[in-house]
């Protein structure tokens, strides 16, 4: 038996609705976490922040409770769909956990990775659309610099 | 036998004279490449670029052939020392190769990773000193964005 089988690592894979994160997960399942492993694979999905500051003074910016509930429902549906797809990919792994966070993915991923006691964080190289990335920088770059554990960034081949 | 033992991956570890890159190598040996593996571990060291443009017209900038030879000799000694330390860490790994490049580490690491057909690149999170990093950005960020294969960035815990 290889030394490998003795390992019990906690590996967090940050997933979102993009193809790149599913590719990163698949790559991780082929190269890092194996069928017979004792590793725990933690799928982490971060929902966008809830709409902020519903204002009763400025009617043009009011977000009604009903609208907020709809946004929240849609956001939960997206989360469920992403986690379902990801879980299907992991059906040979004995120890899979799912976590859902909410907020700026850069902060949430770094904080939860630490709270979850991760030995490694795996993620796709993007995680925002092109425009948001131009303003905020890439989520993976931020996490590579700020997460407390080693970070594996997987790009989807073009 | 786990699926792991079937793998024959080519894993490049970029090393330099810093503690962080040796930590990244050790972490990789505990978590990614195992004793009995068929993986090939490629240690890549990048020497700084040779002094450019020795000029015969501007005496204040002349770098004599003798000075260049000294710089080159020193740079080779550093490379040998780093590779020797790294090789000692890998004494349980059957397939270890060493490669030395020269130039800007950002470009050389990305180019050689591709030429060597790497399945993964492992590196410490730095690779320049503080001041150079402020101007050039971190080598690992650059490689995470530009290398063609997945990149694992390992930070040394403080």
UniProtKB/TrEMBL annotation, chains A, B:
Any Pfam family the entry gives: Usp
Highest taxon of source: Eukaryota
Coiled-coil segments on the chain, per record: none
Gene3D superfamilies (alphabetical): HUPs
Residue ranges annotated for the UspA domain, each copy included: 9-155
Annotated InterPro entries: Rossmann-like_a/b/a_fold, Universal_stress_UspA, UspA
PANTHER family: ADENINE NUCLEOTIDE ALPHA HYDROLASES-LIKE SUPERFAMILY PROTEIN, OS05G0357525 PROTEIN
Name of the protein: UspA domain-containing protein
């Amino acid at each position: 038996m290889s030394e490998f089988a003795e390992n019990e690592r906690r590996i967090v894979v940050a997933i979102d609705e993009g193809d790149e994160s599913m590719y990163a997960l698949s790559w991780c399942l082929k190269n890092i976490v194996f069928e017979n492993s004792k590793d725990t694979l933690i799928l982490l999905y971060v929902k966008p922040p809830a709409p902020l500051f519903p204002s009763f003074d400025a009617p043009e910016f009011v977000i009604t409770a009903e609208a907020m509930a709809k946004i929240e429902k849609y956001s939960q549906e997206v989360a469920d769909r992403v986690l379902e797809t990801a879980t299907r990919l992991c059906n040979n792994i004995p120890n899979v956990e799912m976590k859902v966070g909410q907020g700026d993915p850069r902060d949430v991923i770094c904080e939860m990775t630490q709270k979850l006691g991760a030995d490694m964080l795996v993620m796709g190289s993007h995680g925002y659309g092109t425009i948001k990335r131009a303003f905020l920088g890439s989520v993976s770059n931020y996490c590579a610099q700020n997460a407390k554990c080693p970070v594996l960034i997987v790009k989807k081949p073009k």
